[in-house]
Design goal:
By secondary structure, the protein is of the alpha/beta class. About 25% of the residues lie in helices and about 30% in strands.
Length: about 80
């Protein structure tokens, strides 16, 4: 049975691909688990206000419901790119 980590990275106002790449390095180094990064455009977007931002940022978080189908592992740990 395989175990691995799945990270979604859909770039918008924030470069989640860069964050996911760094997160995958940390996971592989400290947890010794393989990582799969799923990239792509999310069809559902919204704008969110964050406490440390003066303006709202584009937020793309749909697609996570596909994690079971997107994962190549039997057991999957799903992480946010910006954890």
């Amino acid at each position: 049975m395989t175990t691995g980590v799945l990270i979604y990275a859909t770039d918008g106002d924030i470069n989640y691909t860069k964050l996911a790449t760094y997160a995958s390095f940390c996971v592989e180094k400290h947890l010794n688990l393989p990582v799969t990064i799923v990239q792509g455009n999310s069809s559902v977007t919204s704008r969110r206000n964050w406490a440390d931002c003066e303006t709202s940022v584009l937020w793309k978080n749909s697609g996570r419901y596909n994690a079971v189908h997107d994962s190549p592992y039997d057991k999957t740990i799903l992480l946010d790119a910006d954890f």
